[in-house]
């Protein structure tokens, strides 16, 4: 599949900004905001914990909520004390006043917790055992606030105002994630409440953390961290970052430690029995796993390694176009593809929205088979892929930038000995070797189902062995793979994709997950009655439907696809933290 050069350029530029370098952090741009963005993955994992999903759905058992309140009250007391210690270290009246106000806010939050405790029938004087996750978190907070940070003098030895300010900054770094995370969770959960229905048992809790006053407190905490960090060195900013990240991880552990006595929709693999169950993960490759379409990568290899127009090729070499001719040919193919693809999509659209019908959709997508076959034949006839060296292709695969979190997800799921999991990659890619190299660079050996370039002594002939060219080919491969499994285990299938080419498989799988925001996929799917539901709200709804009593039932051909903005969401849903 070809993509226009303008898309190649935009994709290439985006991949240069995926990594964050500590030295690039500028205080004037907001240190706290930068860390929140950088550690967004951890906020996703907190949101997808069984406790938060159950709370959001309103199915959380009351005793579990009481247990949480008890742990949170203990935590908040330490949180307030940490603010008190930070206030003592602050070097100016403005910072001291801001810290004092934040501490008062925490004390008000404690009062609110006490009202919750009384409302839900728990004796506020009754002591519950503090769990290890809460202890670990509070110990971390108070140790940081006491100056017990690696490379920092103890509180009794802080000789200068600057050293004291540094400890105050470290303390705020350990506390800010909690404020921002609860603000984030409050807003996310509040958006799922039905404004016409006041029956949600935890509406008061959600309202309090989504309130404007709490949002303001979170922002004030971030502003104070920014202010206290202005004069710190790069090494000290590194410590700030590590403390922030550690606090984010401790938040996840805190939520995971809350006891639940009910089935939950996440993580999907909870309760997986490898002797009875088989989890089959299917994934597309281009722009699902990758940042750049593989066709653009192969074309670029061809252009870069092609001879210049003024170089005479020896008779022993395979005849190739010059790099300039190759680029012109590629540009022409890309332009044709884009124009004809848009026309093809328009031609298969029903005049008005119809109810979901898988067979009708299959029939409509048959037209894409003819289109993709013409495209691939055109590529072969153009000889743009002729003369590629297999080693160049493999090296490109090894260096290919995958979506953030993609490799780590597959590594964790493949290497988990407690799961009976099979991974299959279904792709239109012209060269399966490129895909295999991309995954092998991460130590992964996955099943790849794709087209293959033909090589003669490691040099491509330009011919393609066509195996997967259309949505129907992918669906056929999907069905064949499942047929080859024995009936000794129950299959649970997940398909992860991003385009119209994945639509049939996405719908056929028990769970179809859409990565990215393909306009054509949503346009075609919506017109054919497919519903696109953001994954987290979808899980909350699923949890609510089960009423916290029965295990969720996942079944394909429901006409519902779940959308995500990152692989972190997929990881959090399927595997958990």
From TrEMBL:
Coiled-coil segments: none
GO cellular component: cytosol
InterPro entries attached to this UniProt entry: HAD-like_sf (IPR036412), HAD_sf (IPR023214), Haem_Oase-like_multi-hlx (IPR016084), Thiaminase-2/PQQC (IPR004305), Thiamine_Salvage_TenA (IPR050967)
Superkingdom field: Eukaryota
Domain Thiaminase-2/PQQC: 50-147, 166-255
Name of the protein this chain belongs to: Thiaminase-2/PQQC domain-containing protein
GO biological process: thiamine metabolic process
PANTHER family in alphabetical order: BIFUNCTIONAL TH2 PROTEIN, SI:CH1073-67J19.1-RELATED
